[in-house]
Amino acid sequence: MSNETQKPIVGFTTGDLNGIGIELLIKTVSDSRLTDFCTPVIFGNNKVLNFYRKSLPDLNLNYSNLKDLNRPFLKQVNLYNCWEEEVEIKPGELNAIGGKYALLSLQTATQALLDKKIHALVTAPIHKKNIFSDEFPFSGHTPYLKAMFQVQDVLMMMVASNMRVGVVSEHIPLQDAAKAVTRESLRSKLSIFQQSLIKDFGISKPRIAVLGLNPHAGDQGLIGKEEESVIQPLIKEMKHQMMVFGPYSADAFFARGYHERFDGVLAMYHDQGLIPFKSLSVGEGVNYSAGLPAIRTSPDHGTAFDIAGKGKADHSSMLAAVFEAIEIYQHRTGHAEMNSNPLKKMSARMFANSVDERIDDN
Fold it and tell me: What is the pTM (predicted TM-score) of this model?
């Protein structure tokens, strides 16, 4: 197989048109080195892309308009127009236009992923309230993709060079988080976690740590019973199938660096896992939807309306999401060693900074 056929075709959504998503895209794909590792396809619109190009005059973005998804330009950045009409863009403003076209971009790109026209999808940030509608009754990308691919369960996994953190419950009210911790949910999430670490990350015998739900992991039942009634019995059951340990007290686990002893950490709810992850991943975190037959990654941050259109957005996390998607594709197709990911040699932030340095030199 040639190097060109080994390179995945990676799709990009625009995210909310009034957020930082398109700026991130431009900064990411304008570096000509990216096409050495993948073929980018942006699902958006010429006029929207050109609107944000004006605020980034130092970047040299070259792309080709793609009419047929079956025939992408392999050594170029591709733009697939999802709509033709004029769209009023108001950077930093939360309005219906931003959500409507974010959804159109996502729907078109997801269909391409379903049809295997692209090998992986990198999604730019959406605003959950803004995009929520009868057409999109979901709390985010991961449950939407779960429905589109018709899989029983998925795992929201946060990935960085020094850790992988999965969560049992995602975007739900905190008062409902404890109810989501059941033997069935833990069994499902742990199974997805293990299989993803093997298939997507090339770890043959992954070690997974499980956090407790309550402070101090329940303190032997003094501060909650879920550890003794649900979590510990399930870990004991799953030890026959995988290397799983815990439950650990969440407050001390990351502070003492215990996450470095494991290949993955399963947190019980969103903030329990994401607060330490974002604190320790140094701006290079990636959101990965594990459990899908396809590959989807995204930056680990939101729309950042406060800096939209100002050219200030840091695209390190977007670059990390692209490289993570490429590496997962290589693991799934058996080319991980043959075509090593540049992220192993250069962090996404260093890669992004090298772009900034070249801009400054100009």
Answer: 0.90
